[in-house]
């Protein structure tokens, strides 16, 4: 981080000018606009031999400006692939020359691919993510919970590993409301029966602990009472 700050704020050039007395002669302080020059007007080549800063340079792994965690390349690859699948789904929906009977199966396949891709990642690498990594993944999990093409499959595949990584408190804070909305949906399909399967209900009750809501408790009780006894 120190190297990045020196590079962005031109601290090396300010220090050199301060030592040479340029700041006193021209009556300006470091960080203020220089006469005839904009603040942070970068030289073509800095003292480190780098060109003026740009997002690509700052975020490139080879520049080592920012200490990216070891899991970041694989996480970036995951999120990039999720965006590509979502873009393909949007393109299919916009195609007016494709019959709805053909769009449906294609969209279902791509939606399932999105969930399975994220599921493989969280089951293999979720334990390696720190708080920052989790904060990057959770919005995509919530998006899949809310998408009509992925919601049930996402809840079935992702809730348990993600809740394990978050812990009870954060699970209740970030996931519970989306799960309850899904269980209380007015428009349901046959797929929603999976949400009342004994194994899933037990996972939910275990991860929520005593923080489970009244509505969730009512539904969990109904599921258990309606489940066949072994």
What's the arrangement of secondary structure elements?
Blueprint: H1 2-9, H2 11-20, H3 22-26, H4 55-59, H5 72-94, H6 100-125, H7 131-146, H8 151-166, H9 168-174, H10 176-183, H11 198-208, H12 214-226
Helix pairs in contact: 5-6, 6-8, 7-8, 8-9, 8-11, 11-12
Q: What is the approximate shape?
A: flat
- The value of Rg in angstroms is 26 Å
pLDDT averaged residue by residue: 75
Beta-strand percentage range = under 5%
Number of strands: 0
Number of helices: 12
What portion of residues is helical?
Answer: 55-70%
How many discrete domains?
Answer: 2
Please describe the structure with a list of short key phrases separated by commas or semicolons.
mainly alpha, 230 residues, 64% helix, 12 helices, disordered C terminus
């Amino acid at each position: 981080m120190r190297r990045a700050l020196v590079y962005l704020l031109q601290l090396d050039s300010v220090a050199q000018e301060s030592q040479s007395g340029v700041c006193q002669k021209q009556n300006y302080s470091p960080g203020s606009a220089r006469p005839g020059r904009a603040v942070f007007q970068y030289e073509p080549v800095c003292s480190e031999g780098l060109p003026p800063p740009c997002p690509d340079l700052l975020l490139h792994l080879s520049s080592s400006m920012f200490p990216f965690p070891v899991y970041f390349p694989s996480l970036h690859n995951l999120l990039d692939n999720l965006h590509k699948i979502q873009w393909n789904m949007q393109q299919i929906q916009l195609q007016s020359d494709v019959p709805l009977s053909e769009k449906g199966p294609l969209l279902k396949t791509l939606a399932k691919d999105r969930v399975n891709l994220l599921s493989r990642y969280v089951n293999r690498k979720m334990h390696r993510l720190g708080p920052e990594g989790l904060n990057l993944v959770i919005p995509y999990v919530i998006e899949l919970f809310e998408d009509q093409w992925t919601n049930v499959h996402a809840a079935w595949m992702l809730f348990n590993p993600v809740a394990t990584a978050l812990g009870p408190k954060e699970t209740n804070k970030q996931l519970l409301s989306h799960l309850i909305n899904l269980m209380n949906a007015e428009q349901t399909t046959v797929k929603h029966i999976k949400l009342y399967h004994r194994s899933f209900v037990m996972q939910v009750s275990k991860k929520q602990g005593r923080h489970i809501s009244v509505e969730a408790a009512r539904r969990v009780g109904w599921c258990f009472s309606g489940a066949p006894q072994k």
